[in-house]
Design goal:
The structure is a homodimer. The first copy, chain A, is mostly helical. The radius of gyration of chain A is 24 Å and the shape is elongated. Chain A binds a DNA duplex through α1.
Amino acid sequence: MINHAGTMAEPKASKLDEATPALEPDLTAGTCTRKRKGEGCQRRQEILEAAKRLFAEEGYEKTTIRRIAASLGISSTALYVYFPDKNAVLAEICASTFRELRQHCADLRGAIPSDPLRVLHDAVTHYIQFGLEHPHEYHLTFNMPLPPEVKDNAEHPGDCAFQSFQALVQDVVEARQLHGADGNALTQQLWAGMHGLVSLVLLRPDFPWVERSVLVKGHVQLLVEGVLRAADGRQCGGLG
Amino acid sequence: MINHAGTMAEPKASKLDEATPALEPDLTAGTCTRKRKGEGCQRRQEILEAAKRLFAEEGYEKTTIRRIAASLGISSTALYVYFPDKNAVLAEICASTFRELRQHCADLRGAIPSDPLRVLHDAVTHYIQFGLEHPHEYHLTFNMPLPPEVKDNAEHPGDCAFQSFQALVQDVVEARQLHGADGNALTQQLWAGMHGLVSLVLLRPDFPWVERSVLVKGHVQLLVEGVLRAADGRQCGGLG
DNA sequence: GCCATGGGTTATCGTCGTTAAGTTAACAAC
DNA sequence: GTTGTTAACTTAACGACGATAACCCATGGC
């Protein structure tokens, strides 16, 4: 209890600080002794998982460093050993989610060598379902400004995921001989269309949406048909 | 400088509080005397506009009540006379933006009694342009969870705007005799598609988007064609 | 035994949203 | 022209926040 700081000011806060008994430390560690090298990585992973869960449950801004730490039974400052600040924790979660999404897309293209339109159709469906099944990760990753740590990354996971998708669209453009189609623009529009549904459904859960499967199937169909039709002249719609 | 509070505790903060010289009060008021009834509404509007500007420039979470107040030359607590909390300020801005958007849509339908498809086409274009031209209001309104003040409102502006759009889609469904089309689902999908583009472009300004007008025109076309095609069987795409 | 170091702690800072209590200027009635 | 009343605003303070600085101490190689 010795005041070893130089200023000798009275303590003023620290009354309810870290004193939320609702959050108990996770005692699944097993050992009670201090650990050394290598264990740090484990702790780092624990922090990431706790943060992911709390971000998911309560959102980024409302999740505090202190509560992440408390849920692991450590003090808030211990977190700064593994991450420079709160934003860096979010950045790492974002990057991991982006990677998962990209792998999803790449696997699909490699595993199903069938009609490119069918592959694109399935990829779009997959994307939307992925988003809806990982609401919090999706929200963290796509529905808020990218933290600089991710944005300045040369291997920007968003760009990578986009490129995977672009390949699928290009396959369709070539297979269907959609002359005059800008595959890049089409991919951006398709992505925007997928993102919009996921984003709105996640952000407006109380909206009276039509039944989920109808909504998703119809949306995929709308987008894929749109890609086919919008690509080469508007011979069906009739809008000069 | 008399300490009129009962507790006689030492002041501890209040050092840099409200002491940011960069933010000068807006001295356009003219009179220097205190004002009475009716002037309160003016101050309320001032707060809303300052908040809108600051939310726009720096985002909701980073904008503090103290800075909103400082930009008007009043103390932070004065704000609580007009709004119960920070969220309520955001809620009012949201509601106002929703109204503007809805009016946009209604005007368009009333003023141009031409081909329903053309009207829908223009409305979608309008929506996207509106979003891109009001990036911060759009972000505040659509890209974050609705505050309860707006959500619990019976005249939920989002629902109203949606209904306006639904009417346009229904016009198209009837004019083109798209049997088997669920106008409600189509509207939701169309809205999701529009929202997705606006949302992504606003949230990822550094992404290598194709040229803006190409992107928007192509997207509108993709969506409108998608509505036409997705509505009644997939006779063009060829995906069983 | 010594000590560098990794994995923690406590104390503290400045800021935040928000509340409580007090101040002051403009009006109303007497 | 004093006396309320009240709208509009202030100062002081609270508890929580992100972050930093300074310290503690068990482990493990020497």
